[in-house]
Amino acid sequence: MKFAFSEISLPKRGSLAVLVFADNTLSPMAQDVDDITGGVLTRALETSRFKGKKGDLLEILAPQDMDVSRVILVGVGEPEDLKLVDFENLGGSLVRKLNTSGARNVTVILDGLESNDLRDNEAAAHITFGAKLGSYRFNKYKTDEDDASEPSLLRMTVACKASSGARKLFTDLEAIAEGVFLTRDLVSEPANTLFPESFADKCRELSALGVDVEILDEDKMERLGMGALLGVGQGSVRESRMAIMHWNGAPNKKSKNPIAFVGKGVCFDTGGISLKPGPGMEEMKWDMGGAGTVTGLMKALAGRKAKANVVGVIGLVENMPDGNAQRPGDIVTSMSGQTIEILNTDAEGRLVLADALWYTQDRFKPELMIDLATLTGAIIIALGHENAGLFSNDDDLADQIFDAGKTVGEGVWRLPMQPEYAKQVKSPIADFQNIGTGGRGAGSIVAAEFLKKFVNDTPWAHLDIAGMAWSKKDTAIVPKGGTGYGVRLLDQFIRKHHEGK
């Protein structure tokens, strides 16, 4: 799909979208269209349930006295209440509707927003951003797709004041969308094509954008003492990898310690010897969602030339029940030198992160670390699919992540960490055990307390995205399947708090 911007004028062909405010108040251009068509818009509103609320859409086909094929009335509610995320949802909703209508192109006229604090070029850029996000499809493996299911929309033009400014803003947003798309692609890939080595190859492709990429194989990780990570992957015929991605964009590159992001990359999780039930196991191809987000974020930052030093570290493994697989009762030694008793091989993601976190803080001395992982089913019980779980040893960092999530519409919710939970990962025969002593209670918190054992004094946050990396339903800007959750959130976090500093 192609995107463009223009000054405000009525198109001579294609589809037209105009704004309608609360209580069916027409925008100025919508009023012009109503006058040209002899009141077609007014009559359509009077005979429908459309009320001009956010998200309302009403299609009018072949309006008289106009050459356009259809007019879409777009409800936006009270203009002064609109936020950037609302414009994104507007763009995504339009694309989803028109993609099934046969429309080939659409012009969206953005006017009547004088009471809103946002600039017109910001609103226009974010409508287009939402449209791009909503246009995503993962269909590379389809060989016989019905014409009716093929998206029809090829071009969107947003007409607004200061269209050149909107075009400039969209350049950065488009780079972020490409990062989201990379994450969605990675999460959607089947495990027979995306495994540790091929995932590492995908990371290498970011070199074209100026990202420095380094890959550690099993021999290198063994020399570094990464017994926790390597233990998870030892049952697979696919060798484990660690990918390190550097983006050095800060104005003073040499003196600035990086911001670090660490991702769990379990490319397929059978549970190992502690085997998962068969139903639903196919979904475990996206147990690398945290690593997918980190990789997509690195692409987004490099694509928009972010003025920050950032390092992304992802641990890539498969958890398989081979004769060489790790067993319940085994004890491994992590890179930190701390020992871990394995009580459940399906609590494997925290073992991968233990070594990845320690490696990251030890080598890069980052200003802060944020890890992302589809870590626990318990977080879905607690928060559903509306928020990721947030855990942190630093209140300011937690607040910044929360605010960034609220801004872009990718929610997080902070859960507690305290000594009573930490006691549950003490082992009687090793330093720690990889599951808690409290049964199913507070499973996500106990997992976070385990991770904290591998973080020293570095400000750190853990995002449990098990409920957010994959969706079984569509929204305006997120299709079913891999969501790309976290790329926009963390880009906003960097943009607001660490850009150019």
What does this protein structure show overall?
With 501 residues, the chain is an alpha/beta fold. Helices cover 34% and strands 21% of the residues. The chain contains 15 helices and 20 strands. The protein has helices spanning 28-36, 40-46, 84-98, 120-134, 163-188, 196-204, 218-224, 227-233, 289-303, 349-364, 378-383, 395-408, 419-422, 443-452, 487-497; strands spanning 2-6, 15-21, 25-26, 57-61, 70-77, 105-109, 155-159, 212-216, 241-248, 259-269, 309-319, 331-333, 339-341, 368-373, 388-392, 412-414, 432-433, 460-464, 470-471, 481-482. The protein has an eight-stranded mixed β-sheet with strand order 8-9-11-10-14-18-15-16, sandwiched between helices. Strands 1, 2, 3, 4, 5, 6 and 7 form a seven-stranded mixed β-sheet that branches. Strand 2 and strand 3 (25-26) form a beta hairpin. Helix 8 (227-233) runs antiparallel to helix 10. The longest helix has 26 residues, at 163-188. The relative contact order is 0.11. The model has no long low-confidence stretch (mean pLDDT 96).
Please give the order of strands in the largest beta sheet: 8-9-11-10-14-18-15-16
**Shape, principal axes of CA atoms:** elongated
> Can you summarize the main beta sheet?
8 strands, mixed
**Class by helix and strand content?**
alpha/beta
- End-to-end separation in angstroms reads 35 Å
Give the rounded overall mean pLDDT.
96
Radius of gyration: 25 Å
Please indicate the percent range of residues in DSSP E strands (runs of 2 or more): 15-25%
List the uncertain runs: none
Oligomer: single chain
Q: How many runs of DSSP E, i.e. beta strands? A: 20
Task: State the share of residues found in helices, binned by percent.
Answer: 25-40%
Give me the number of helical elements: 15
